[in-house]
Amino acid sequence: MLIVPAENTINWKRPPWVTLSLMLACFLVFVFYQSDDDRVAEEVLETYLESGLLELEAPVYENYLQRQIGIENASEMTERLELFQLAMKRQDELSQAGMMAFDIEFYLYMQDNQEILWPTSERKQWRGEREPIHDLMLELSSFRAGLVPAEMAPSTLITYQFLHGGWGHLIGNMVFLFLLGFTVEKALGVGRYLIAYLLCGVVSGLVFSAFSTGSSIPLVGASGSIAGLMGMYVAIYGRQTIRFFGFFWVYFNYFRAPALAMLPVWLGKEIYDHFFAGATGVAYMAHAGGLVAGAGVILLLGRSWFQVKASFYEPEPEQQDQRFTTSYAQAMASLGRMDFDLARRQFEALRERYPDRLVLLEHLYHIAKLRPDLVAYRDRTRELMAEALGQKLTERMTEVWQEYLGKGEAHHPLAAEDHNRVLFASLRSDHLKQAEKAFERLRATGDPVLVAEACQLLADEFDKRQMSPKARYYKQILSGAAPV
């Protein structure tokens, strides 16, 4: 059974740099730091086969497995015993050597019980040949930087997260790291995401160690941290219904469910597999620990240290464009049916969500223009003039102003500031006649301060152009319009 969240798609305009960096780090560690593991493993096997340890340890190993069947996981030990007995029957020395040479628990068992396993001469031979092989095996990256519960060092709670047991292990983990990581990184932001990821790995390692107390088998891999991402993912969405991809034996498909409903399903599966799956080599309790840690990070600290960014819940630009296009088409359809009241409400709702789209204000302006006797027409005119000026669309601003003078000024006159704005814009664009027209409208409002300022501005402008009669005209007005 496999269930993976599939609610989001990645936006490559804003790549998940931390997720990609974590993937690169795991890849580089595997390729370079762990590159010597194959040579060490081959040397361990060669040295073991060249020694006389195979005949000395094989009977002991068979007996050891039989004893462990009644103590530990019976299915796991039974499977291992069957494989070993099959190798003995086929006289497959390489398989026998591989099982015994790398079984650290078996080595510790022999070390503790050597006095009762062999007589003095064989015991001396065993120590002389086995200890160098054991020391050589400890040069493997999994023992140097992996998490060994029996000898846990704080640093290995971090380093084990970047080690992997093979290409299949690495690629599988990196696929899930990418699928989950880009969403959680977007939700938490770069710094908090990295801290949460590593923290989940630490908790995952501690839970694994608690259920493997005294074990000398090292834990490696990013799967505990990735399980933490799964826990964070569903906790971020909480009770919201989101999309998942499910694979059940031969059936696979997408389905929708409340996000948090998947947490007990995943957790129950890991705990069940820990007790009943047998010898799979998978650290199920590490996964369970990561899931709980990830969900806890968001559910317990989501309003403080690990608060989800508000922008995470906003749709991506592509989704916004799609939603805008759909809603805009509905509003235009209402216009086509001449249902102007409904169209107005639709355009107003769109403008609340997309305030920067001038086309929406244009439509609202034209709808208001159908009733020039209402104050709404003046308000939309002033709003469109200000928006057009802000976007440096001076010609559009003056067009709207002139249109209002012909249609709505008689009903609800514009304020002095509106005419003054047109006057300034006209002067900047070198439209003197329009500036003078705006001045006359401004003068009619009776605002002495703005009229005086406009007079001075026009007089100075005509002086610069050596148009003395015009300059003198505005100076005369200024002398009579200026406040006492």
Automatic annotation (TrEMBL):
The keyword Ion transport does not apply. It is found in: Membrane. GO terms for cellular component: membrane. It is a multi-pass membrane protein. Coiled coil: none annotated. InterPro entries: Peptidase_S54_rhomboid_dom, Rhomboid-like_sf, Rhomboid_protease_S54. Keywords: Hydrolase, Membrane, Protease, Transmembrane, Transmembrane helix. Residues 156-303 form the Peptidase S54 rhomboid domain. Belongs to the peptidase S54 family. This is Membrane associated serine protease, rhomboid family. It comes from Marinobacter zhejiangensis. The lineage of its organism: Bacteria, Pseudomonadati, Pseudomonadota, Gammaproteobacteria, Pseudomonadales.
